[in-house]
Amino acid sequence: MKKLLLETSFSKIYIVVMMLITLLIVGGYFSYAMFTVSKEQGNAISIITGNLVYDLEVDGSDGNTLTVGAGETKEFTVTLSNPNNRIARFNFYYEGSLPDGVTAGYITGEGLNTPPSEVGTNLETSGTAGSSNIYTIRVKNESSSNVIITLGVQVGLDYNDLTLPSNGYLFEEIKKETVADYVLDDQGPKGDIYDDGIDTFITGADPNNYIWYSGKLWRAVSVNNEAKTVKLVTQWNISTINYYSGYPTNFEESYMEEWLNDTTVDGFLGNLRDYENFIVTDAVGLLNMYEYQTSYRGTSYRNGYLNNGLYWWTLTLNSSTRGWGIRSDGGTIDSGMTSASGVRPSINLKSSVRIVEGDGTLDNPYRLEGDNDTDLSGTPLSSRYSGEYIRFGNEENNLYRIVSHENGIGTKITSTEPLKSSGEFIESAFGNDVTFSNINTIGTFLNGEYLTSYVDSTYNNMIEDSTTWYLGTVRRGSSYKLAKYTTDNTLTSMTTEAKVGLLRYGELMAGQFDRVDNNTYYWSLTPYSTSVVWGVWSNAEASSGNPSNTYGVRPSMNLKSNVVITDGDGTKNNPFTIELG
Questions:
Q1: pTM for this one?
Q2: Quick check: is 356 in a domain?
Q3: 166 and 33, same structural domain?
């Protein structure tokens, strides 16, 4: 045991004393320290250095050994106390090297500004007394036999008097850095995990698996046991489209696959931040039925966190003409492939992606390294990402989201939800026919009353005076791209010019971002035929309505290229504030 303590021999004390005497002579000041190794109480370690006393206890009792069985992961609480008022530094160490398959390190250091490091850490501040710092040491034993690790402690009065013993090693901090580490470590009181032998699934009613990435809120669904990639799915429906014309043979031939992996300004992947650095090569898909049903291991998967209260497609086909989706009550539905339902994109994060902040809760989701920008003051809004939140407009209608950078120079935005008045959604007819313009019913409102009553002059001046709005017709079972392009992928000639417009069918952010009871129907810009217009229903499906019907209004517009960020980080809790640069 004694060799695990501060190895203080007579010769070492002599050397230290001689060095202190030299310092006294050269430096002209008095300093005194006497090093002694104190009692062993059972296996407990006490070290007295001058008038400093450090007691090392493991698991709250006398002892300094950690016993970990084969295949076990155990955490030990270590208390290091100093009842005096001197500044000191210390290191933990363990005897010898760790066996193969065993890792150990600090998890937390309560009461310290920084975790222990190679040069030690102040245990307490000068002039205070009675400090006690608690550490959690985790030991992972993936070997085939039990291991016993013996702890020691090294103490020094000043920053230079702290060297590791020749036979010991500093405990390095075990960092929960990768996404897999975090989401599998702590799911909170409403979460758990389930390992099917291939993937480990996050399960439960509302686990701590929220992740904010590229302007969107995601849920971590599973971790691949071998590759350590993490599958995510968006919390809400990013848009609403039909799956295919009716006869796909697989996902790869569908409109859905095209929309999800479209790398242009119109597609989901093309607006995902630095996707080459974050997600694996097989880019964007949907969740399948097995993944959805595995997310809740109780009596019904309807109670699981993947039920977002809306309709949305899964990857699983039922036949050549029908596919499985999820209803707003969490049950499953067998829908025709020409139906337009919600889209929740799913991606696989690379195993190397790291968590840099957050705790996985709704109010504090995990943030990824490379997507946690700070101090964005003066940054052009046109450099930011689809889905990020902006403070724009007045009173209760002052929260917007980035859609895309469709015109290449500015930023297209839309209101987070349809407009309200005194807490109630307002409604408007579309017009006398299916063609939007700045003088039809809804266009007159958007380019008139909306600009004066819902957006004051400060925000009004940030909006481009004129934007081209694409009015292509999309029939049931047709490609989403026809809202903007012809069948040969040239821009449609069906356009109009206006300052404020609406989102198209299948456009980014043309989904629902709350449960069915908390939102309303709203108009899109896109004709379904010569007699009806597409709208997004409160359950997140899309269907057509007579233009004389009254539905909600979600204005959309292009902001000027010189709009800059003044504050915020683009999340819902801290949206960007903006001004003309």
A1: 0.75
A2: no
A3: yes
